[in-house]
Fold each of these.
Amino acid sequence: MMMMMMVMIVVMVMMMMVMVMMVVMVMMMIVMVMMIVMMMMVMVVVMMMMVMMVMVIMVMVMVVMEEEISMLGEITHLQTISEDLKSLTMDPHKLPSSSEQVGTVNQAVRDK
């Protein structure tokens, strides 16, 4: 009888140990799942920050591109003016037709 009680106690202790081990395993699994979820959250935050950085860079590039395009327009305008001046000043003895018109208009006004 005593032996049987001892065996029962040992079996109960072993069952309790198995239950404790199962609880510990479940707790470890819960902790692992929580760690995975936290890692995923950190990854999402990092990805959001990267997207924001890309957006900021795109805005900065757009501003620079707009400035470059406007400068290109000004350079084209200056090139046109330079070409016109070059063609008008090729022969220093020949006046452009518009300056001759101004001269005739001024002469007609003086004559009146």
Amino acid sequence: THFGGNLAGPFFGGTFSDCLTACAENSSCVDVTYTSGGTCYLKSSVGDAYAEAGSCDGLLPVPAPSSSTSSSTSSPSPSAPPTCGGYANGTTTVISGQTFTI
């Protein structure tokens, strides 16, 4: 979960996947916070991180400057315990063409 940067008001009653989809479809969104009560906050910036019991976060990567070198990353094991609507912490998922880190 990250402080600040909320876009408009939160929306209620959806799933964590709905929250990620709403962010993926909003060009100003770079992060989401989803609470255990079903509240979704779309964020236009990523502030300081803090722990909040029962909340989930989905972060879009900051585009890296282009360079002539390449690098690769790997996701943690898919057997990690699910914590956010079936998504495991530290993994990535692609929704509406956007790659989120959970």
Amino acid sequence: MPDISDHPRARQPPSKSFSSTTHCRAKALPSDLSIITMTKYDDFDWDELPAEAQEAAKVLGFTKEMWDADQEPKECNKSWKRLPDEQKAAAGVLGYDQASWDAS
């Protein structure tokens, strides 16, 4: 898996606004908008994603256009328990596990 710690935006706070009702991308919690739940690639544009992350995003229903516009597929509204194994594995590539998916 690539080391993204040197990515120029890996050290910056997120610049995009995110939905508070879905699981896939970072979100601000309704009780305190300063708290952000993020995974490895939340602040990356599609073209900045490694090929493995792009493939994982596709398995979850993302397209390049959706990812770059911060739009989320319906799969992002499912609980971890309702995701098929292939989508759980894809979510894992993007940095999620059951606890972080269901918490976001």
Amino acid sequence: MKHYSLTEWQDYINGNLLDDEVRNEYEQHLYSCDDCLESYMSAIESLETDLPTITEPSLYTDELMKKIPFKEADKTIYRRKWYEDKVFHYLLATAMTFLLMLTGVFSELTNVSSKFEQKTQPSFTEQVLTFLDKVEKIEEKEKK
């Protein structure tokens, strides 16, 4: 890997390198070489007095922002359709609830649950235990 000298980095900072390809080579080298990055930083420090100073940063920022071209935003106003509105959804839910109440769907649901509770069927655990008891009895008979 080729390392650049302090004077070469000073030429880079001052803009004495006219070829864009060479400038890109220097920039890419900075990403991969820590030694040259240190040389570059020391070159900046040595040329710090020669570099222009910004007296009022806010004015500099304003001037820079004026130079940036901005694209105008679309000023079309999106108007929601009536069925996309929250109020429509709440009204629809209320209407469906009243409709289900009037037709008796909710009362049928309570009847189904009470019918389900009336069935006296042993639980799954009881069925498994009964099955295991039967298996044990069969094994005992086979041993005799």
